[in-house]
Design goal:
mainly beta; 22-stranded antiparallel β-barrel; 5-stranded mixed β-sheet; 7 helices; 47 strands; 52% strand
Length: 1007
């Protein structure tokens, strides 16, 4: 980072504070002679350092600095980043994870570690979860020395950060000197259920830095371990995709009486043509999590001569997560709706919903377990050589990897005893209720064990049996190898070139992403009709009140107790199902397990490699000069980047399409080895940047910046293979290896007033003109050479004989009879003698293949306001910022088709109050994020998902017992705010997560 020349009245305390944090202890002398040393440490030190970074940088840069060695302001790095103007975060399990910058999502922001691009994987996802978004939950903050956030593009910064580049800085022993710190904390998460979790869990960390007396050799070691037990109580809806226009025939789609006449009661019915929505389901879920995070770093520095510094470093992180979940759900059947009461929204949504069944249906339960392991490794070598007083050269190499292994084991259960179900959606947390009859068949012998229970009038183990099992898993790995050669030449000229330099460099980088996912790996355990409940012993289950797991919404004391399989007996349920399957009882109700066990079938439906090889070169000129006596700075740079993309997939290529008639069609994979598909693409860019600032007054700075940045497409969008959605509708989806990055032209103007040595206010405007956002387009093309028996010669003969083209079952019967009569065609009939497939003479199928393309544009702009003020020597200080962001493209909640809109855009605000004096350091931080669009395709359809506005208060207190020992206490989300998402209106709940506070009490000793 280029820095401006020192201001004439530089704050002495700031200089000393910076020296203390960096590990230097020499006294500071002013130009006019000796002065009293004023040492500033702790919170005040860190915010002054951050202010200095912002003030002295050329371009729009913000920073976070460690309060002391091994002590960042927040225990989670993402929680610290959200306090930077323009940055906001997504949360997982109530903890910060990914960062959005000025409305640009985490996938399009670059995260570097000491200037090196870091690989990323998704934590705990068994789907096709390859990602470019770095998850800060993997990295402990204790080994982080500081963070710089570049909001404007720079030629000397690696490409890929469309929104911003976030550079994490770790300790270097030759900078820090000989120091050490150890710390231990006790963590208490208020959400953790005492029955299955430890109420108190540990965190330990340590950092050691040693340098020899000659300052020529240094070693730094750091490590941390944290275990956190927590629980998630969530109720959610898969989707609200039954979006229709109300018409006079609407009632005929609902419940009918015994005579077949519509009899549903509709209150506040939509008007003709008005849109209305119906939910697919409602679920209550409780998940208990145990997360263990381990971090370690080793750095060795050697300075054999004054002009050469060699640095060798290794960074490791591991996140091991285990989760046990219990779930109950009701699935809705449109044809059984007997009562609806709608709200008055633009898209009418039920607030009361009732279904009535002529017989019984199932209420569903599930028990599951997730195991996820994420590991990150980074090894690097850096050589910094001062050729002479004007020229510095640097050579940097690193190889880094990120791995995630995730697997799930789950059992789906059901009780086929429900005669009606009711949901009250008017509550913030909807109430689920069912009416049961577990002895319906007693009056109509013989008893059907599949649709009957034990006839005791309550939901219990005598009513519940198996339905299905699932064992999906995934393995994602991203590798990055990067080599950089950088030079910095300082001119010895006059005037404009007196304080000028030229930075130049070349880079070679290779990114490889491996993605394997099994997809659905289900085995039936009775399927949704169930089996005899008596086969599953009663003591595997217990009744429970789910309302107790949602304390913010009140226990459902007057509502029915809810029932779910006991979490600890998931293994017993699996063993029981396997024993039943092996015994041969009810063989038609069980699918074949893998080697007789409920386990993964060994098939990866996603098996993909994406390789990106990039070469780049840059030149960047900087100068510090005066304009009419006003201090000014300019940086002008140009970066050239070219990238070759190769992507390959191993697929079970469909070899034929079977047709049974009507819409019954299925694609059958070819036998034998998988087919390897491979495609390539390439692109190159010239990316300019210019940053200029001028100080009209000594403490006033005005900045102007322009840059171009790119953000690469997601790995899944680059796949070469095509997946069939519906053989009958002839739809499929595929990737586009030739996709180009999204490109943004960025404009910034800001003014900063440093009105006191430790205080400032700033206001800025930014604009991003983004081209090439990834949308989708449908292409008509053939897939895998598949042919269509429906349009073949024999089918045409059937039409000529008088069969209507719309009579697909009649045509199928005609084709089947012709195939059976011709010995040469019998090979194209399935063994059951019902299904038929095309011959080589039938026409190729033309599919509607949806592929991603670069076809969307958007303008994002906004204002950033920030202030920092310390109230003299009182010890009190405050930081505050507000970001307003907007886009010219928004989601239309009244449009029913697919549409493009910017996700992640929201206003944000932070207010942080400090007290730092004598032995006390206290911080109270308030963070707010306005509602925003999270997804345009919730539930797999064209439905939006909005995250509602969220605020959180965090508190930290430190008391210095002596100069070495500090007692700390922290509270995260102390008011227990909750997380809620919805669809086209707030009435369309998609998820409601009941969160709680987390507290930490610790001791920290510094040597």
């Amino acid at each position: 980072m280029y820095k401006t020349k020192n201001l004439k009245r530089k704050l002495l305390a700031t200089a000393i504070a910076s020296s203390v944090v960096a590990g230097f202890h020499a006294p500071v002398m002013a130009q006019s002679g000796a002065v009293e040393e004023v040492v500033v440490t702790g919170i005040r030190s860190s915010v002054i350092q951050s202010m200095d970074t912002k003030r002295n940088a050329v371009g729009v840069v913000d920073a976070i600095s460690s309060e002391d060695i091994g002590k960042m302001p927040d225990s989670n790095l993402a929680e610290s980043l959200q306090r930077i103007t323009g940055l906001s975060i997504n949360r997982s399990d109530g903890e910060g994870s990914r960062v959005t910058a000025r409305g640009i999502g985490a996938e399009l922001n670059m995260v570097t570690l000491n200037g090196r691009v870091m690989p990323a994987v998704a934590n705990g996802d068994t789907g096709d979860s390859a990602t470019r978004a770095y998850d800060f939950a993997n990295l402990a903050s204790e080994s982080v020395f500081g963070v710089d956030v570049y909001k404007t593009g720079r030629a000397d910064v690696a490409t890929g950060g469309l929104g911003a580049t976030i550079n994490i800085k770790t300790l270097r022993p030759l900078e820090a000197g000989s120091r050490a710190t150890v710390a231990a904390k006790a963590i208490q998460d208020s959400t953790a259920r005492s029955a299955v979790s430890d109420k108190i869990t540990p965190e330990v960390s340590g950092l050691f830095s040693w340098v020899n007396d000659d300052d020529t050799f240094g070693v730094a070691l750091s490590g941390s371990f944290q275990r956190r037990d927590s629980s998630n109580a969530n109720n959610f809806v898969n989707n609200w995709n039954n979006l229709n226009a109300w018409d006079s025939e609407a009632l005929t789609r609902f419940h009918r009486d015994a005579n077949g006449n519509p009899d549903a009661v509709i209150n506040n019915a939509p008007a003709d043509g008005q849109l209305y929505a119906l939910p697919s389901d409602l679920r209550y879920e409780v998940q208990d999590n145990r997360r263990e995070r381990s971090n370690a770093q080793a750095v060795v520095q050697f300075k054999p001569i004054e002009r050469l510094t060699a640095t060798l470093d290794y960074t490791f992180s591991e996140l091991d997560r285990q989760s046990e979940r219990a779930q109950q759900s009701t699935w809705f059947n449109t044809g059984a709706i007997s009562e609806l009461t709608f709200d008055n929204g633009a898209v009418r949504t039920p607030v009361l919903y009732r279904e009535t069944y002529d017989g019984t249906k199932d209420v569903s339960f599930a028990a599951g377990r997730l195991n996820s392991l994420t590991q990150n490794n980074s090894f690097g070598v850096n050589l910094a050589f001062e050729v002479n007083d004007q020229l510095n050269l640097g050579l940097d190499y690193h190889t880094s990897s990120a791995n995630n292994y995730s697997q799930v084991l789950e059992m789906g259960l059901n009780a086929n005893i429900v005669t009606g179900q009711f949901t009250d959606w008017s509550r913030k947390m909807p109430l689920m209720s069912v009416t049961v009859n577990d002895c319906l068949e007693r009056d109509r012998p013989p008893r059907d064990v599949y649709t009957n229970g034990n006839c005791n009038g309550i939901v219990d183990g005598g009513d519940v049996s198996g339905a299905m099992s699932n064992s999906p898993r995934s393995h994602t790995r991203t590798e990055i190898e990067q080599l950089q050669l950088v030079g910095d030449f300082q001119f010895n000229g006059k005037g404009f070139f007196e304080n000028a330099g030229l930075k130049f460099g070349i880079e070679q980088r290779e990114d490889v992403n491996f993605a394997r996912a099994s997809g659905d790996s289900r085995s039936g355990v009775g399927n949704w009709d169930g089996v005899d409940p008596a086969l599953f012993p009663d003591h595997y289950f217990e009744s429970r009140d789910f309302g107790k797991d949602f304390p913010d919404f009140g226990a459902t004391t007057n509502d029915p107790l809810w029932f779910v399989g006991v979490d600890a007996n998931l293994d017993k349920m699996v063993e029981t199902a396997e024993a039943i399957n092996a015994s041969g009882k009810h063989p038609s109700d069980f699918y074949d397990f893998v080697n007789g066990k409920i386990q993964w079938n060994g098939i990866y439906t996603t098996n993909r490699i994406v390789e990106e090889k990039s070469k780049s070169a840059f030149l960047q000129f900087n100068s510090n000069f005066d304009i009419a006596g006003l201090d000014s700075n300019i940086v002008v740079g140009l970066r050239y980047e070219e990238t070759d993309v190769t992507t390959s997939s191993a697929v079970n290529e469909p070899g034929l399409i079977w047709w049974y008639g009507g819409n019954d069609m299925t694609a059958i994979p070819k036998t034998g080895d998988k087919t390897n598909l491979s495609e390539s693409g390439s692109y190159d860019y010239l990316l300019p940047n210019i940053d200029f600032d001028i100080s009209p007054l000594e403490n006033l700075k005005v900045r102007l910046s322009f840059s171009e940045t790119i953000g690469r497409p997601g790995y899944a969008d680059l796949r070469p293979n095509v997946a069939i959605n519906s053989p009958y509708e002839r739809t499929a989806n595929g990737g586009s290896p030739g996709l180009k990055p999204m490109e943004s032209k960025n404009f910034d103007i800001s003014t900063e007033w440093y009105y006191n040595e430790d205080s400032y206010v700033s206001v800025g405007y930014f604009r991003k003109d983004i081209n090439g956002f990834i949308g989708s387009k449908v292409f008509e093309e053939n897939v895998y050479g598949l042919r269509d028996v429906r349009l073949g010669q024999i089918a045409q003969q059937g039409i000529a004989s008088g069969i209507a083209p719309s009579d697909e079952q009649g045509l199928n019967d005609y084709v089947l009879a012709a195939y059976q009569a011709d010995p040469a065609l019998r090979q194209y009939i399935a063994d059951n003698g019902i299904w038929v497939r095309a011959t080589e003479n039938d026409p190729l199928i033309t599919w509607d293949v949806s592929r991603p393309i670069n076809d969307e544009k958007s303008v994002i702009d906004g204002f950033e306001l920030a202030a920092q003020h310390w109230f003299g020597e009182s010890g009190f200080g405050v930081q505050a910022n507000y970001t307003m962001v907007d886009s010219d493209v928004a989601f239309d909640n009244l449009a029913t088709g697919g549409q493009f809109a910017m996700t992640g855009l929201s206003d944000t605000a932070n207010v942080v109050g400090f007290y730092d004096k004598d032995a006390w350091q206290i911080r109270v931080a308030y963070n707010w994020r306005d509602s925003f669009l999270l997804s345009r395709t919730a539930g797999g359809g064209n439905e939006p998902q909005y995250v509602e506005d969220y605020s959180q208060i965090d508190v930290s207190i430190g008391y210095e017992i002596n100069e070495n020992l500090t007692l700390t206490a922290e509270g995260i989300n102390v008011t227990g705010e909750n997380y809620r998402t919805h669809g086209r209106s707030k009435a369309q709940l998609l998820s409601l997560e009941d969160l709680g506070a987390r507290y930490q009490l610790g001791l920290r000793y510094t040597f």
